[in-house]
Write a structure and sequence with these properties.
By secondary structure, the chain is an alpha/beta fold. Helix content is about 30%, strand content about 20%.
Length: about 300
């Protein structure tokens, strides 16, 4: 979407709105964090701590945007040709922009804690590159995907043989681990990730979230943090928001690191109330465990 079109649509929507409800909790109380293009504003919800762009995005607008307009350089939105895909498969995606091999240590330790191989859902699986790789990990029994975009889902089904789960099937599917990378910041209502996790995770299942770091600790270190929200990212996700949203989960919000020492730290906190460890890296990493003995607060 061009800046001119984005600005025009934002002005048109703002003229119709007198209140800016938080898309996550529906409350109105907020404080202003940042402004862009004269009319778009980043607001911090004083109830749930979500930082959200106004004017907000409806479910239908979100669907249309990601099907027809969303574009980023590289393989996130550019579906590879047959020749390109063959080369990616031939090297098993190693040392490409979509290499998921860095997850092996973390998933190995999670499987060790469970004492069995993991059934994994890639939440926001795009055209299936993550599912294809994770499904081959020795500590994973099966990996399937969930994807919002019909176009990208069809590509994964037809070219990589990926199995995707649809929302109507959520009540019938249970997973040991949900992995979601760079999804929640795009969602028209990010609290849906919690609702879906409650339907999809097994008792004591794990949820791993990676997203741009909108935490205050990261903003101090990153003077360009304002670029993290806008037309493509209607939400700027912070450690505060994730601690609020997943308040009855265990675990923590960390710097994005995947070495074995870090993975051991994540597991060592799996019986503690969800807490922030003041992440400063460009992306934050949440490693959360559903507490099967607790109910939503």
């Amino acid at each position: 979407m061009s800046k001119a079109k984005y600005l025009f649509e934002s002005i048109a929507k703002a003229a119709k709105l007198s209140k800016y409800k938080c898309p996550s909790c529906g409350m109105i109380s907020h404080k202003t964090v940042d402004r862009k293009l004269m009319i778009t504003t980043l607001r911090h919800c004083l109830n749930c701590d979500l930082q959200y762009r106004t004017p907000t995005t409806s479910e239908q607008e979100s669907k249309t945007f990601y099907e027809e307009e969303y574009s980023q350089p590289g393989l996130t939105t550019d579906l590879p040709s047959r020749e390109e895909l063959f080369k990616l498969i031939e090297c098993d995606f190693i040392e490409t922009e979509k290499d998921h091999s860095h997850l092996k240590d973390l998933l190995r330790l999670l499987a060790s804690e469970k004492k069995d191989r993991l059934r994994v859902l890639d939440y926001g699986a795009n055209w299936g590159y993550g599912v294809y790789q994770i499904d081959k990990f020795p500590t994973v029994s099966e990996c399937v995907g969930y994807e919002y975009s019909d176009v990208r889902r069809r590509y994964g089904q037809e070219n990589l043989g990926i199995r995707y789960v649809e929302e109507k099937e959520f009540g019938d599917e249970k997973f040991d681990l949900i992995f979601s990378s760079h999804v929640i910041e795009h969602m028209f209502n990010p609290s849906l990730l919690l609702s879906h996790a409650e339907m999809l995770l097994k008792k004591d299942g794990w949820l791993v979230i990676v997203c741009p770091n909108g935490s205050y600790s990261a903003r101090i270190a990153n003077q360009r943090w304002s670029k993290l929200w806008g037309s493509v990212h209607p939400n700027l996700i912070s450690d505060q928001y994730l601690c609020s949203l997943f308040s009855w989960y265990k675990g923590g919000i960390y710097n994005e690191q995947y070495d074995e020492k870090s993975a051991n730290l994540y597991l060592s906190n799996h019986n503690k109330k969800v807490s922030s460890y003041m992440p400063k890296t460009p992306n934050l990493l949440a490693v959360l465990k559903r507490d099967g003995a607790s109910e939503p607060g």
